[in-house]
Amino acid sequence: MTEIDLQTKSDLIDTALALADAARGPTLAHFRADGLAADNKDAAGFDPVTAADREAEQAMRAVLAAQRPDDAILGEEYGHQPGSSGLTWVLDPVDGTRAFLSGTPTWGVLIAVGGEEGPVLGVIDQPFIGERFVGGFGEAWSEGPRGRSTLATRPPRGLDEAILFTTFPEVGSDAERAAFHDLAGRVRLTRYGLDCYAYALVAAGQVDLVVEAGLQAYDIQGPMAVIEAAGGIVTDWRGGPAKDGGRVLAAANPQIHAAALAVLSRAE
């Protein structure tokens, strides 16, 4: 991908914010609504999808068709749409659909844009709380009930002082689960269940580590861009690229990342 000029950067930020705005209506219309139904996308387990997921992605795709028609799109619900610009928008209309169904406001709308190298701009939006986390092009900020503030990750500390999050206690395979719980046994506090909101807390300087496995590109690219712009680091469990998902380690700084990586990299 060629260098992005200032005007294009401004346009991408404006478009990303417009996408987040567009997704708020459909998601809020269904959140905590009576009779909300979910289809199951996984016959072997439970991978729910609701009308909110589908309508929010449709609304975001409509914005892109009007404002950035030459860009490609990769969305969780409607797949890949090719483009000619070299840029791809990666969309997860409701990350944390289980939380959405449960009425807990820890789900979010995830938006990223970038090229083959990965995302250059990301958004984590929580419509019900009214919090938005944005990061890219050397800037990271949040907007919410307390107004706008700059995002910055936590400074270095030992694992024995760290806060660790993951969505499910049963992380990935047996080997992945063992590696995670080895790490969990070394930190001060381990918490579960926040989906994408945990990544927002890394960017906001509240949490040191998020560790997950089995992710898709649309699960991580938005959070990755926000965390990296706020001073953190996001890789796979061996220190390689995480833009395509899989095993993901998000850390507040290189030092805590290295300490966690030394434990997780033992997983087969």
Automatic annotation (TrEMBL):
Gene source species: Sinisalibacter aestuarii
Organism superkingdom: Bacteria
Record InterPro entries: Inositol_monoP_metal-BS (IPR020583), Inositol_monophosphatase-like (IPR000760)
CDD domains (UniProt xref): Bacterial_IMPase_like_1
Xref: Pfam families: Inositol_P
Family, similarity comment: Belongs to the inositol monophosphatase superfamily.
Keyword set, alphabetical order: Hydrolase, Magnesium, Metal-binding
Keyword Magnesium: yes
Gene3D superfamilies: 3.40.190.80, Fructose-1,6-Bisphosphatase, subunit A, domain 1
Identification of the protein by name: Histidinol-phosphatase
